[in-house]
Amino acid sequence: MDATDAHLAAQYEAYPYPQRDPREEARRLIVGSPSHLREIDHWIFGARRPAGRPLRALMAGGGSGDGTMMLAQQMAWAGRPGEVVWLDRSAAARQVAEARARQRGLSNIRFVGGSLLDLPALGLGAFDYIDCCGVLHHLPDPAAGLAALAGALAPGGGIGLMVYAPHGRTGVYMLQDALRLLAPEGEPPAARVEAARRLWKHLPETAWLRRNPWITDHLDGGDAGLYDLLLNPRDVSFSVPQLAALIGGAGLRLRCFVEPLRYDPDRYLPDPRLRARTAGLDPVARAALAESICGNMGIHIAYVTRDEAPAPAWDDPASIPVLRELDGAALAKGLPRDGVMRVAFDGLRLGVPLPRLASAILARVDGQRSLGEIGDALAANGISREAFARDWAALRDAMEPLNRLLLAAPPG
Fold it and tell me: Which of 35, 88, 233, 271 could be stapled to 131 by a disulfide with Cβ–Cβ 3.0 to 4.6 Å?
């Protein structure tokens, strides 16, 4: 632990992050990426790992527990065996996370105090899935942190990562520089927060963070959000190439960025001459181009594996399609008549064309029926197998990159 790390540890004792009230667990489950159970099944295991096989998950730097609550609750609702191990060195964050788990009555969480850098000495065993969300960019050596996580993976396992990205955080680092002068790290956390709030109140309109609508932790994240964003003693962002290099350096493979569609530059460049140029770029360069031209990516979320991840069996009649946080019947009813689904990512709006049979197919995607059963139901209504196969492939190509249409873990 260096001096900066000591300040970081003190920060999360004073302001566990994110700021959460355990009493709110009765009203809602906070859902996001990475570590949504359906994403893990699809992106890490290629929808090949049986649902009845126990899942050991590690939340490395679990904080106040958002990812832990989400995954543990989803496993409990689905009757999935296994455990979620929360690991963090903040005692204050542990109190919040444990209180949230009690509110939910979850018994599949194990709480362990410590750092992810101490994994070899903690004796926790190997994990099928590891979440590391918002942690690597605060470590003195992110490469050592990711290497420690890679070493704790079970065969066939994978990791869900979230790190800060530079372009979408325009303005953040300028204010961090200002606050190092106005509110030095040696001051008590509460005094630093008070100074930061005063600075924001009087910040000129020309300040870049004033013009950045996608960063809001200082506005709606409470004192913990403001401290983490503007007063954090160590905050390193990663561009796509830098993150890819970090992943490769740990002996890991990039499975996908989330959402994959955002990292496809052709989605933003209809000009055929520009597309001819993008066609010559490798996958990482294409993703880097998308990041650079969009400018609104404040974080990168990635799923990575040590072994080559199996591809989902999209054409297998036994595969069961699922929608992530969407109701198929409701979605089908609400599709625009022109067949173009409108989506938005941090102020960026895109149209995603859907095939003619999209509504008929989506109405039958309920997480229970297999592809074969959906095809049978459409055939009974006079839709040919060929038409279903063609439009199913088109629907998959449209919605999997949105991280919305996935395949479920097989039963058993």
Answer: 35
